[in-house]
Amino acid sequence: MTELTSIDGVGPAIAEQLEAAGFETADDVLSSTVDELADVHMIGESSAESILEGDDDGTRGRPSKLEDHWDDIMDAAKVGMSKKGIARTVGIDESTLHDWENKDAKFSESLKRARAVGERRLITSGLYDEDVDTGMARFLLERSYLYVKTEKQEVDLTEERELSFSDEERQKLAGAFEGNPET
User: Fold this and answer.
1) Residues ≥6 apart with Cβ < 8 Å to 98
2) How far is residue 127's CA from residue 113's CA, in Å, rounded to a whole number?
3) Which fold has domain 3-53?
4) Strands (E) located in 62-125
5) Which of the 8 DSSP states describes residue 63?
């Protein structure tokens, strides 16, 4: 491990790139400018600023848009939108929404609760609000919340048929019922 990895925000890979660019000590790095550091491979301008400010908040790369979209996502979920509809509303791909659910337990729980509010709204509005199209509420519940419509039907299976068998077929059937299928 080199001295450069003692700098907040500099790991082994960045230290290697800094050394390749001619930075030998932590003082060399900390006395440089943002532009000089940003010219080093693998270091962008925001990373250079973080290194010089000693700001190692543990985040690297492009920041997630989750925080920017959190409130809009929850609002869309609370009105009963499908996950695909939520994603469209905030301008992200549905797979991004699923990734955020899988990676962030707090977000996943919040989204479940917000969707439960939306589900409850659809159910209660479909039951109690005369101005609501119950067919549309039912459709949304089926599509967004996987409600399945089931119906029971009585079926009469008392059909009689006359079957005719040859003598040979009767013997085979009789043998099969007696445990001797060869007869």
Assistant:
1) 83
2) 21
3) DNA polymerase; domain 1 (1.10.150)
4) none
5) P
Mean pLDDT, contiguous 10-residue spans, the chain (183 residues): 81 88 91 91 84 64 76 93 92 92 93 93 79 80 77 78 86 79 54
Tokens of 144: 């967004």
At 75, give phi and psi (nearest 5°).
Answer: -65, -45
Q: Which residues contact 143 (CB under 8 A, 6 or more apart)?
A: 82
Q: What is the dihedral of CA 54, 60, 65, 66, to 10 degrees?
A: -90
Close Cβ partners of 107 (under 8 Å, ≥ 6 residues apart): 66, 70, 100, 101
Q: Determine the Cα–Cα distance for residues 7 and 55; give it in Å rounded to an integer.
A: 10
User: Looking only at Cα atoms, what is the longest distance across the chain?
Assistant: 107
- pTM of this prediction? 0.47
Residue with tokens 């399945």: 148
Tokens 């009963």 found at: 80
Query: What residues have CB less than 8 Å from 82, skipping those under 6 apart?
Result: 140, 143, 144
In the chain, residues under CATH classification 1.10.150.20 are: 3-53
